[in-house]
Inverse folding.
């Protein structure tokens, strides 16, 4: 009789003690400092991020817990996904995802140790710029480095950042470089996104960089850019999952309490079925996302496919979920002062960051079936 033998490690979806602790602590901090009332105040304040909340997270050691140290490897991408989910659940206005991914990359590729220390102390925050086809960065080789030219239309939360991790291509090879936001030749124009967060359009005009600014100078060509992007899209998916989960919870409560024709809205079959679909989408998003985060940390052979697949699904399912939760609130869902609207715009903005659903699906197809074999 043939038996099935599993040789590859598999994801354990139950959280261990350290992971449970980070979720509990993050949840307590977010719920106390990033509640509905505080979010409205911060949104209307004009500040680029919630400095008090960011300081509290740093002092609690949540960012530091992700990084490897003398004791162990740190909580890594899985830990960041857990934090990003809590951030999404509370709509916390902090530059968590790009800064934490940058910190993980600095630790992974052993570069810019002083910047890593500043991130750990809360004095540095790092934005990540991954140019798309229509918004690219051109590089001209100089004696000691490069000159960068070009434009990036959407720099996520760049006004809150002190540094940028920028991807550019030179002779077909992708590089990533660390620069300060005040680097000469870099123009930053702030604008407000649909989620009411502050972002920026960036113009590079002969921005000088040197070899020492590179991250992962001895890594394989394109390795750093790929490593960073996969973790960006996965943790963005985790934040989408958290926002959708909270939006579904609030919608379930609203439809159970709101009455129409003398009975709760939730007793209508159409309402119940749509809410159930949103719940299933949310749970599937989270399970595929945390599995992808684990595969990235474990270095499995299917990590790239898992990351792209989970990120694509999060954008598709997130779109469906927040539309459902908004519609099930009726006219209240379109009220900008209703918090369910904030979940809607948060998810709709995140699903455009670092790759749309269509782009991720095309990339996944190219990964599974390389162009050379088409």
């Amino acid at each position: 009789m043939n038996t099935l033998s599993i040789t590859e490690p598999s994801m354990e979806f139950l959280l261990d003690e350290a992971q449970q602790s980070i979720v509990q602590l993050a949840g307590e901090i977010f719920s106390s400092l990033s509640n509905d009332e505080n979010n409205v105040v911060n949104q209307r304040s004009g500040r680029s991020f919630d400095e008090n909340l960011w300081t509290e997270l740093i002092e609690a050691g949540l960012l530091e817990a992700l990084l490897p140290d003398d004791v162990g490897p740190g909580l890594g991408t899985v830990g960041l996904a857990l934090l990003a989910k809590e951030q999404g659940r509370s709509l916390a206005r902090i530059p968590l995802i790009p800064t934490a991914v940058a910190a993980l990359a600095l630790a992974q590729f052993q570069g810019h140790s002083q910047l890593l220390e500043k991130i750990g102390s809360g004095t540095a925050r790092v934005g990540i710029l991954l140019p798309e086809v229509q918004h690219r960065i051109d590089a001209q080789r100089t004696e000691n480095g490069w000159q960068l030219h070009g434009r990036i239309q959407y720099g996520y939360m760049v006004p809150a950042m002190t540094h940028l991790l920028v991807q550019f291509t030179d002779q077909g090879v992708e590089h990533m470089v660390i620069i300060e936001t005040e680097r000469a030749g870099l123009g930053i124009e702030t604008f407000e996104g649909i989620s009411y967060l502050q972002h920026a359009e960036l113009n590079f005009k002969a921005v000088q960089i040197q070899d020492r600014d590179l991250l992962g100078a001895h890594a394989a060509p394109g390795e750093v850019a790929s490593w960073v992007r996969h973790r960006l899209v996965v943790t963005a998916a985790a934040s989408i999952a958290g926002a959708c989960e909270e939006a579904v919870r609030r919608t379930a409560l609203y439809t159970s309490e709101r009455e129409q024709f003398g009975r709760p809205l939730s007793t209508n079959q159409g309402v119940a079925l749509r809410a159930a679909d949103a719940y299933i989408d949310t749970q599937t998003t989270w399970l595929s996302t945390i599995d992808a985060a684990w595969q990235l940390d474990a270095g499995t052979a299917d990590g790239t496919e898992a990351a792209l697949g989970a990120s694509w699904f999060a954008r598709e399912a997130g779109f469906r979920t927040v539309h459902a939760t908004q519609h099930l609130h009726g006219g209240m869902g379109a009220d900008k002062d209703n918090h369910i609207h904030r979940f809607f715009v948060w998810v709709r903005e995140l699903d455009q960051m670092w790759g749309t659903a269509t782009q991720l699906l095309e990339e996944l197809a190219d990964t599974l079936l390389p162009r050379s074999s088409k």
User: Anything to note?
Assistant: The CA atoms of residues 248 and 325 lie 6 Å apart.
